[in-house]
Amino acid sequence: MANSDTVLRVDHVSKRFVRGERHDSLRDLVPAVVSKLTGRRPNRDSGNEFWALRDVSFALSRGDAYGIIGSNGAGKSTILKLITGIMAPTAGKIDVKGRLSALIEVGAGFHPDLTGRENIFLNGAILGMKRSEIARKFDAIVAFSGLEDFIDTPVKRYSTGMYARLGFSVAAHVDPDILIVDEVLSVGDVVFQNRCLERMHSVLRSGATVLFVSHNLRAIAELCQKSILLEHGKVVAHGASQDVLTTYLERSGQQGLQPGERDVSISAVRLRRERAEGVAFESGEKVWIDVEVEAARECEPFSVVLFLNDDKQYEVFHTSTEYLGCPPISLKAGGRFLATFELDLPLGGGTYYLGALLYRFTNEKTLHRVFPAATLFVSTVTEARGVINLHPRITAFGPAAAAEPAAEALRK
Amino acid sequence: MTNALSELGKRRDLLYAITWREIKIRYKQSVMGFLWAILLPAVIIAAGVLVRFGMSALSGKAVPAQDLAGVTVKALVWAFFAGAMRFSSTSLVGNANLVTKIYMPREIFPIAAVLSQLIDFLVAGALVGLGLLIAGFGLSWQLLWVPVLLLLTIALATGWALLLSAACLFYRDVKYFVEVFITFAIFITPIFYDVEMFKRWANILNLNPLAPLIEGISKCAVYHVSPDLLWVSYSALAAAGSLIGGFHLFKKWEPGFAESI
Questions:
Q1: Residue A110 domain-assigned?
Q2: What is the pLDDT of residues A299-323, one digit of tens each?
Q3: Does B3 touch chain A (CB under 8 A)?
Q4: Are residues A372 and A227 in the same domain?
Q5: How are strands ordered across the β-sheet holding A91-96?
Q6: B171 to chain A: which residues are within 8 Å by CB?
Q7: Considering A249, A283, A303, which residue would you say is the last residue of a domain?
Q8: Are A228 and A267 part of one and the same domain?
Q9: Fewer CB in 10 Å around end: N or C, chain B?
């Protein structure tokens, strides 16, 4: 991977943190130093350190869009802090070529007493722009934020949304070689999230590189060709985003209690036609899903939840025995239970993933989750794209003058 | 170190922006506005003048106008130095959200604190300079020493600012230590008095590297006498040492800032 197009290389990087006791004041330091000098070993240190990252390596070439996924505490934010230089790695090396811009927190450094105009210059400088550059882009930044009328108002009078819009507008006008985006999409409204995505697309079109950390698996699947999966600070999957996402979902499905510790678990999920096995279906066909449950011990009452995700891991649909009017299921030790769901599949063509979980609605507790439990391939005869087949038909097709009388009626 | 310096040079626009923010927010929404730049030095000057009148009452000798002007100049320089220490020591902790969220050369914060105090000093200094001219203290070639001595004072302040800001980040009570020290240091620095008053003990007072600089500035500006070259060289060494040492240690500790703050 030592090609000249590499713009970011993370090379066997590890990061150790010391948790727990630290000397925050001189008052604590003095006794600690004295006990060190007198040879008494302080009874801490070992066991108090933990590795947020262990031997992480990857490289980004120019024009790549790269995703980092992982559950909370997997080390995603730490790796970004190391790449941006906020923290230094304990071991390993990070090489960055070119201007790096991070959409980690929009509006960082905004001062509430300063006006929008003043904050644009301040924030722009913090993000690495020259004063002349900000002056040149100033009008564009203001127009993009849509805050022309409030630009000379102190930002403490702004709403949260206005604040974020202004911050994002400045950040969006930095021309980076590498753009780093962290979870920004999880805050803000839909319009704002879409703007972030648009921004990343336009950065990519300009030939720059994007590194994207998110819980939004759909956004990662859409934007990034390649991803890595972090788990407890280690890279556990690495490669094409689709594969990495599937690995992530499989692993998160298995997380939690070990099989032996569970009171109750899903023993099988079967996908079938009424009387035959099958995984490939025509759009509009019916499908039967058997969910088999087994109890190791007597368990609390639960319901069976069934859900269907598309290939970008966006939830298409979910249902449960509870929604369908069935009472909660109680099982004795060794008890077995079968719930069969019958579904219509008015879906667009594509690959879908089926998941099942045992859920206790009264205290919102998941007892067991299996995902993906089965893969479903749906083919469409009609030309319908997307997750749902709305059965499109053409009822008029020709010059507008020959339009249906209904259109005339509407105009009146 | 050269890398660090060139990086700082590249981000000078940020240094200006942060300095300007420091100044702007201090005077925004305040009753006195820019008068604050003059108020604090004015209070110290008033204290100095009072002390001088007190001394003259004890000794029975009248206070020469020159001595009052000398106290004024010295109090002004002291106000700059003390302000620089006070504001820089909290500069990193006060910008914790930037230190932990975005990368930038962090020395910008203490340096900006010193610069913003310097601008206050220049405002007050211009007024005092004008006052000295009107009062007929005249001009001389010795005035050329003033910018040199001032530069050394700034270097000394910046070196200590770097050290104290980092120390405050690791140990929160350094801030109180700085406050106590500033309060006390006005007595061991020749502001209300001149080192010569202490005869053969004068050299001990001059060990404080700020003393020869402050004395020198007042001597040149008011009495038109060249400063003591030997002691000024000593201060210059101390200033260069604290600037280089402060910067070096700051950069050495910087990688740990974000996780220790």
A1: no
A2: 889 999 999 988 777 888 999 999 9
A3: no
A4: no
A5: A49-61, A6-18, A91-96
A6: 23-26, 29
A7: A249
A8: no
A9: N
**How many domains does chain B fold into?**
1
**From B18, B97, B172, residue closest to A108, measured CB to CB:** B97
Helix (H), strand (E), coil (C) string for chain B = CHHHHHHHHHCHHHHHHHHHHHHHHHHCCCCCHHHHHHHHHHHHHHHHHHHHHHHHHHHCCCCCHHHHHHHHHHHHHHHHHHHHHHHHHCHHHHCHHHHHHCCCCCCHHHHHHHHHHHHHHHHHHHHHHHHHHHCCCCCCHHHHHHHHHHHHHHHHHHHHHHHHHHHHHHCCCHHHHHHHHHHHHHHHCCCCCCHHHHHHHHHHHHCCCHHHHHHHHHHHHHHCCCCCHHHHHHHHHHHHHHHHHHHHHHHHHHHHHHHHC
Residue A406: pLDDT band (50, 70, 90) is: low
Tokens of B227: 């400063």
Look at residue A323 and tell me if it is in a domain: yes
Please tell me which residue of chain B has the smallest CA distance to A130. B13
B151 min Cα distance to partner chain A (Å): 27
Interface mutation vs chain A, best among B101, B106, B108, B261, most A CBs within 10 Å: B101
Number of Cβ within 10 Å of residue B73's Cβ equals: 24
**What pairing do the DSSP bridges indicate for beta strands A178-182 and A100-103?**
parallel
Cα A245–A246–A248 angle (5° rounding)? 65
Q: Does A94 touch chain B (CB under 8 A)?
A: no
Same domain as A266, residue A230? no
What pLDDT does residue A2 have?
47
Q: Which chain A residues contact residue B260 at CB under 8 A?
A: 22
Task: Let me know whether A214 and A316 are in one domain.
Answer: no
Query: Tell me, what's the ipTM?
Result: 0.89
What secondary structure letter does DSSP report for A42?
P
Nearest CB to A102 within list B102, B171, B174: B102
A224-239 pLDDT tens trace: 888 999 988 999 998 8
Is residue A319 domain-resident? yes
Same domain, A51 and A92: yes
* A296 and A375 belong to one structural domain: yes
Q: Smallest CA–CA separation between B254 and chain A, in Å?
A: 9
Q: Are residues A311 and A372 in the same domain?
A: yes
- Residue A256 has a pLDDT of 44
Peptide bond into A42 cis (omega under 30): no
Q: What is the distance between the alpha carbons of residues A256 and A369, in angstroms, rounded to a whole number?
A: 9
* CA gap B17, B24 in Å, rounded: 10
SS3 A132: helix
A230 and A274 housed in the same domain: no
Domain with A324, as residue range(s), is 262-379
Whether A112 contacts chain B with CB within 8 A: no
Domain containing B67 equals 2-260
Residue pair A259/A265 in contact (Cβ under 8 Å)? The answer is yes
**What percentage of chain B reaches a pLDDT higher than 90?**
66
Contact present, B219 and B227 (Cβ < 8 Å): yes
CA A174 to chain B, closest CA, distance in angstroms equals 14
Beta bridge partners of residue A209, listed in sequence order: A178
**What CATH number did the domain enclosing A296 receive?**
2.70.50.60
The phi, psi pair for A12, rounded to 5°, reads 45, 50
CB contact under 8 A, A88 and B25: no
Q: Torsion over CA of B1, B2, B4 and B6, rounded to 10 degrees?
A: 170
Of residues A342 and A258, which shows the higher confidence score?
A: A342
Residue A57 within any structural domain of the chain: yes
* Tally of domains within chain A: 2
Q: How far apart are CA A26 and CA A8, in angstroms?
A: 40
